[in-house]
Design brief:
42% helix; alpha+beta; single chain
Amino acid sequence: MIKTIRVMLLPNNKQKTKLFQYAGAARFAYNWALGREHENYKNRGKFIPDSSLRKEFTQLKKTEEYAWLNKISNNVAKQAIKDACDAYKKFFKGLAKFPRFKSRKHSLPSFYQDNIKIQFTDTHVKVEGFAASKKKNKQKLNWIRLAEHGRIPAGNMKYYNPRIKFDGLDWYITVGIEYKATAVPPSDEGIGIDLGIKELAVCSDRNKYKNINKTKKVKKLEKRKRRLQCSISRKYEKNKKGENYCKTNNIIKSEKKLLKLNHKLADIRQNHLHQATSGIIKRKPSYIVLEDLNVKGMMKNRHLSKAIQQQCFGKFRLQIVYKSEWNSIAVIIADRFFPSSKLCSCCGNIKKDLKLSERIYKCVCGNVTDRDYQAALNLKRYGEEVLSVS
């Protein structure tokens, strides 16, 4: 079982320059390989394998125009070419959209590091090829400080697909590490989880996870974000020349503040999701049942679309699935049309005219209960039926 670990880097100014150079070289190699594939396809030629493109790229580096590529680690360009070929293959297999060229302005800078040559200590990571000199004082440039100490295991370990990425503010390294899977499956009762807007998640064992977007902290940040967006918009209108908008230094400063604010909000929501999903997994249920929500359809409701988007239901499901896999817990996805909220947990009656505003479920049999808790109970029973059949 391979787990991916993501840690923030703390590079100095020289290292930041090198990181951007490496990312630029990776983007150039990717676009070059994609351009060669496009050109070959238009001329009705066969698919060019990445091994042939790598040899061609090596000859390209010998020319005077592209001699600057020799200052970049060879593995960066090699992997970028392989990524371009893989993207092209996936399109013709129907697994992805048609690959597009990476833009310097819009695509996030990233590059690959050789999984054999990369080295980790508790505090630093060694990036290949930053310093050509073998002198100790020059070799220090290769070692970038990690923001979290001891997070990535050091020593003679096998690392999978190390990538260094820039998210607009900070540099991060992601690396896969092999762990042993949990051998003994959990034996506790299963859990049904109903996702919603009022509460993020209501579980069948009466545990609730609040909607973080209703807290004072997030509301205050959202208010600050709206004001900053309006301020930037006014500055653009003020500096408009004819039909073109001019970006001044003040606008750049304000946009950086907005970017930091957006990252802060995203981190708060991501942290809350991890705490909620980890709390569910730590209770060691034998199975977990989730609804197959039609989030795309739900987003069409203009009154609720923002609230639904902020809840991040897709990320919640993704985290539950991979964390359950780590702990040998079965995950069951209920059918999209299963009436979890409309079905009475006592008599099995379906209340077809149940409105979204009705938060308390009242049945003709006398059952009066919270709508979300009842949906969680019904999902748990759905899981029991599925497991009994299988």
